[in-house]
């Protein structure tokens, strides 16, 4: 049973992730209204660039400064940004652009801090796995629940009320974070064998070399190379579909329905639910998009059930669980990308209710198979890399994946703003990613055959 300090830390992790996603959603949705598609996509690109740079620096600062101070300060700075958003309002696109980047920077800065804290807040070493597991679950639920909550609150009570609510959440969490007991690690400036440790400035100067060394160290393992490329393809060709294309798609669907009287039973049902929640017609597209994102909450639960089935299959057939899991996951990714491409291509023939219902189901399955790939990818990397290589490996692949998100947001933003038929452009990008994944799966089966052994159980990311 976890003690009160650990439970408080877990609860604040959920609250902080929820509040960050809530406020980021506010900035993004209003930016799409005030600044248009290109600024909407550009803000995500700029945020990912900033995150890529800040996360490396934040990791070094976490090793050299008091965790408790950085933990509290990061939430207090979020409160400052929330107050600034409340003051500037929803019609200043440049300010919303800057605040969106600022929230991304603070989130990237806080991640190394909070991910380093479980050993400092756990009462016993045996609690670490439980704390880490709940931390991941709360992160994903908060991330996908917040857009839906913002859409409902802003549609019913307006932008200012929603941002005021986030200000109150950040103020409360800043106070509660001061109540968390943190066991600070020993200073990294202590000497070892008479030699002083490198200063923060010296470590920062070696960042580029660290990235280069980490990338070149992967040359010896082609399986890891292929899995990294596979996840990179997901970040370029799949996730921007949800973050960039879906909001634009639902906005177009909502506008098209204003002049159409023929709606299906499902469309009417969804429309009646929106009216019952006192959601204005002009704001319905936000709720449609939020409902699809909400499917991401169910995805991790479905993936956990699938993993148990995969483990049972591997045990009964005496094959390596890691090999079965990663192959199943990538085949699932290929299938869901094909399903999403078909749905987006036919989106003009669906009403709002039918489109939302189908995309929610497709997105649940998409998130679940992506989680399976991530889980087994983590397990394979932990099995093949030495302990001293893992931290650098994680930092470097996160940099690569951020670059992928940048490229994906640029690509989808370009096809949406440059082409009249934006659906065709997005479908072509999905099919391009699908073909690359098929090639990667063939190469993975050729390179990986005979290199997997044992029955290691997968560890969740």
From TrEMBL:
The chain crosses the membrane at residues 70-88, 95-113, 159-180, 223-241, 290-310, 322-346, 352-373, 393-415, 427-444. It is a multi-pass membrane protein. It comes from the Eukaryota. Gene3D superfamilies: MFS general substrate transporter like domains. Keywords: Cell membrane, Membrane, Transmembrane, Transmembrane helix. It is found in: Cell membrane. Pfam families: MFS_1. The keyword Amino-acid biosynthesis does not apply. PANTHER family: INTEGRAL MEMBRANE EFFLUX PROTEIN-RELATED, MAJOR FACILITATOR SUPERFAMILY ASSOCIATED DOMAIN-CONTAINING PROTEIN. This is Major facilitator superfamily (MFS) profile domain-containing protein. The lineage of its organism: Eukaryota, Sar, Alveolata, Dinophyceae, Suessiales.
